[in-house]
Every structure is written in C-alpha cells, then in structure tokens.
Amino acid sequence: MGINILYFGMLAEITGQANEIWTIKDGLTVGDLKKLILERYPKMRDKKFKVAVDQQIGDDQTFVSIQSEVALLPPFAGG
Amino acid sequence: MGINILYFGMLAEITGQANEIWTIKDGLTVGDLKKLILERYPKMRDKKFKVAVDQQIGDDQTFVSIQSEVALLPPFAGG
Amino acid sequence: MKKIHKPKKVFMQGPISPQFVADAIAKHQSKVSIGAHAIFLGQIRADEKEEGIVTGIEYSAYEEMAEQSFHEIREDAFSKFDLTCLHIYHSLGIVPAGEISLFVFVSSAHRRAAFEASEYIVDEIKNKVPIFGKELVGPTGSYVWKENK
Amino acid sequence: MKKIHKPKKVFMQGPISPQFVADAIAKHQSKVSIGAHAIFLGQIRADEKEEGIVTGIEYSAYEEMAEQSFHEIREDAFSKFDLTCLHIYHSLGIVPAGEISLFVFVSSAHRRAAFEASEYIVDEIKNKVPIFGKELVGPTGSYVWKENK
Question: Which of D59, D51, B52 is nearest to C69 (CA)?
Fold first, then answer.
C-alpha cells in the first residue's frame, strides 16, 4: 500500500521513470513529500514544478492520503 | 456634363433605378443635394442614409464637384 | 520598414465554403513564423421575424468603394497590430441560412495580436464597408433590409 | 436551465489538419441559431534557439487530469459567455513546424461572446492544462523543454 507518484516531462527524465510507488507514513503534506522527493532526486532542486494530488493542483499545506495519486508537473506548454 | 448619383439597397427600390445623371450648378454641398433628392423622392425622407462623394463618406458641408460620383448608402449590413 | 499590401479581391459570389477556409489555412503552413491564427466566420442565422423565418441574405455592395474600404481596413490593421498575414472574404448574392458570408483570417507570431486584430477588423467591416443585405423571409419571396447595429 | 456538457475527447495524435477544421465547420451549418464562429489555431513556429531551429514540438500530457481540466474550462466558458457550441482539440506526439497543435472552435449567436470566449479559453488552456512540450531543434535530435509564459 502506498502512493503512486507520477513524473512528467523533464522530471521524468531526471527520475528515469514515469511513476513510482512510495510507502509513506500517514499525515504527510505536499510540502513534506516534496522534501523527500528532492532528497532522492537532488537534480529537481533547480526545476520549477507543481504538485497535483488526485488530479488537483495542491500547495505545500495540502494533505496527501496514503492512497493518493500524486503528480509532479513541470511548466505547462499546451497551445 | 453632370454628377452621377448612385442608389443602393432600399434607396434603389425607391428611385426605381441604380443610378442617374443629374445636372447641378457649381458650388453645391451634400446638404444642398440631399434637399434636391428628397424633393424628387419624398419616400426617402424617413430613410437613414449616408452620402459618399467620390467614394468618401461626406457630411452636409462636403462640396460636390460637378463631375463627382455621389452615392446614397443605406445602413450597412456586411458581416 | 513600411510594407505596402496590394489590394486583394474580397468579394466572392455566394457562400464561402468550409473547404475554402481549409485551403486558406493549408496555404499558411509554409509560413513558419506564424504561431497563431484567429479566424472569424459570419454565418447566416435563421432568425424569426414578424414576416417569417429568415432563409438567407442577399448581399449587394457599392463594390468599388467597398474594396477600397477593405483595403484601408487591412492597412490600418497591419499598422496597429503585429500581424504576419491578413485575409478578408465577403459574399455577394444569396447566402442561405447556415452558410458563411464573412471570413476574416488573421495570423501572427503570438496570439494576442491575432485576437485583438480579429475583433477590431470585424467591427470595422460592419461599420465602414458599404455592403447591403436583404434578409429573405418565409416562403413567399418577401424580405427585410438588414441593418448592422 | 443549466445544461451539463458531456466530457469530450480533446487529444488527437499528431497535427490537426486543415481538413479536420473544415469538417468541424461544415458540421455546424445545420445549427442556424449560430451567427458567429471564432476559431483559434495554434501553429508551431520554427523559432531560432541557441541550439538550432525548432523543427517541431513533441507533446505529452497528464492525460486524465488534462481531459478533466479541458472539461472544467468548457463548463466555465459556457457559464461565463452566451455560447452555442464549443470544441477544443489538442495534439499529442510530434507536430512539425508549420502544423497545427491547438484548435479552439467557439460558436455563438452574436460575435462578441465568441470573440471574448475564444481568447479566454486559449489563455485558460495555456495556464491550467498539464500538457508538456519538447521543442525539437536542429538535425541532431536535441531538444528544449517548452514553457508557457
């Protein structure tokens, strides 16, 4: 049981994969999770990205449920 | 020698023709000419129209040369 | 730097077909400095009038002056907005309800100029070009003269 | 009175062809309450970058979330503007320079709503939809990640 983390665009290039299952403890926020991710992937530190939790853009205070789908989204380029 | 007066749209229906040559005296303005036209075609009195002299919209003060092309333009409906 | 744009033929007999629009778009795919196209199409509405339902519009124009007005509107738009291309087509004669009578095609590097120019140009056409329209109503050949607001 | 609009498929593989645009226009000619169509087309520019000339863009997306964003943008536009129809199409995969990657098709009875909605919707798409793009540059397979401003 764990959260599914999706990486897109240049972030997927850094991680080398499109998604990962992470086991996290309950009660984490997006801010907490970002810290963990940046520890594992230091190259992301200088990248801009937003975090979507269950397909909604969240901020650092958004709580992550242990069954959430979390997506790391680099700058949008549609159009 | 005279001015060519063109009638368009509903105005051509009133006059029964698309154009007429009028002999006018020199020095007339659009205002003067409108008076003459409304005398000849009283049904135009309740119609809105603009007057173009040599393809430029004029006002009542615009002078009409005796070789001008004058056009009576009902409301525009392009588009 | 000021480029003079040759006057172009604007009027077409009858409706403007979707295929004509497609061909115009296709012709611009070799212009790789374009990033945005804004297209406006005026379509004939089957409005309900006292006299009956509109089945089409019959357009006429003071053609020589109208072509000159279109040319001035184009020059003005090129000077006001940063455009790559601009084409205007307008129908003469009968255009049935549901069909297209006006096609304004604006292209620019970035979208803002295309959007602004498109709306500006359509407004200018409605206000300044001597085009006249009979709204044909009902089955009996009656009509109402159209007037832009 | 509130009409719910079914989510529609927005993404298409590869470029959007002029013929596709023509077919979309043709389908709206039976809707005789429409008086104005505003169409926006996003075309790929062959911009010059430090790394070389852009030959195309390769699009990817967080598809599920993107389709949901497009749906919300449509609902929002219908509530803000008096529209008859609204269709959005966006490319995925490679779109070469000169070809079309975005097609926004807005129809309304009167032109003002169509113009305003068109610009609003394109801005919303650029800001809110999780679509990502690689600008392919030069002949050697290098690329630059694109970022909307």
Answer: B52
Residue C117: the pLDDT is 98
Q: Looking at chain D, which subunits does it touch, using at least 3 CB pairs closer than 8 Å as the criterion?
A: A, C
Sort out which chain B residues have CB atoms less than 8 A from C125's CB and list them: 78-79
Residues comprising chain D, all counted: 149
Cross-chain CB nearest to C18 (options D25, D43, D119): D25
The model carries a pTM of 0.95
Q: Is the separation of the CB atoms in D145 and D131 below 8 Å?
A: no
Count CA within 13 A, CB hemisphere, residue D6: 2
pLDDT of residue C139: 84
Structural domains of chain C, ranges and CATH numbers in brackets: 11-145 (3.90.1170.40)
Q: Do chains C and D touch (3 or more CB pairs under 8 A)?
A: yes
Better-predicted residue by pLDDT, D149 or C128: C128
Calpha distance D86→D70 (Å, rounded): 11
D3 burial via Cβ count (<10 Å: 0-12, 13-18, 19+): exposed
Map out the domains of chain B as residue ranges.
14-58
Mean pLDDT of C55-81: 97
CB-CB neighbors (< 8 A) of D29 in chain C = 18, 43, 98-100
Contact A24, A65 (CB under 8 A): no
Which band of pLDDT confidence, cut at 50, 70 and 90, is reported for residue C3?
low
Q: Which chains touch B (3 or more CB pairs under 8 A)?
A: C
Q: What is the ipTM of this complex?
A: 0.94
Quick: pLDDT tens for C97-111.
Answer: 999 999 999 999 999
